Amino acid sequence: MLSVVFITGISGSGKSVALRMLEDAGYTCVDNLPVRFLHEFIGIAHDEHLSRVAVAIDARSPGDIAELPDVITALRARGTELRVVFLDASTSTLALRYSETRRRHPLTDRLQRGGTPPSLEACILAERELLAPLSELGHLIDTTNLTPGQLRAWVRDLIKADRLPLVLTFQSFAFKRGIPLDTDLMFDVRCLPNPHYDPVLRPLTGCDAPVAQYLSAFPTVNAMVDDIAGFVERWLPQYMQDTRSYLTVAIGCTGGQHRSVYIVERLGERFADRGQVLIRHRNQPHLLLPVPDGHAPLST
Description:
The protein is α/β, with parallel strands linked by helices and 300 residues long. The chain has helices spanning 15-24, 38-47, 68-77, 91-101, 108-111, 120-131, 148-161, 209-216, 219-241, 259-270; strands at residues 3-9, 28-31, 52-56, 81-88, 139-142, 167-174, 185-188, 246-253, 276-281. Helix content is 38%, strand content 18%. Helix 1 packs across helix 7 and helix 9 (219-241) packs across helix 10 (259-270).
């Protein structure tokens, strides 16, 4: 069966990184394919007996981007195994990336009026409005604080996991770096005891045994894990009935290093038998670990 991945999202959010990862994984990749050619391209892929193709579509596709939701619905109705990955980032991060690369926004010429080019912020806002319907079609990944290695790993794990009814992601993050854009449910665990104030534990993370032993000794920490797990357990069937394919539960503490990481690891263990569970530590890129074949990642 042909497997199709659509990579879309805001310009500057990492689509090229994601597409190169898919190419390295054996996908036949096409960048900036006009929407009106999608049916023809996928038909050719079927005829050529290709097993995996990836297409990047964004605001550069003139005029017909609004047709993409209907095209995706039609392809799925015909039995095409299709995944949509939408990449986004904060406006300030996107502006910094454009400044570093000295590139023009792809909507600059289209939005120009009377010979005066629009501001970068205006282009980003217009692109968000243009692509807003697409963000509801698949899995949203906020790349604001991600390294290229993290993004590649997250996309890789996602395409492996997406064959099940629902992909449940537990994600730790640091409030001091902002709330992730790709959050469906968010829990604040800053009220729990903080290992940061112990000089021995400060350089460690919630994945390290000394920190785990420290936190597990507090009844409040165990109660927080139980309460979050109970909430997710109670409402997960409703999310699945809503034909949702992805649910991201974000756990935040001040630095995204100890408490949130520990609780995400515990929740991952609790729900390990519930289909596909992904664990992500947004502000701890060194916790990227190799993924054993056939298993969900323990930490990405």
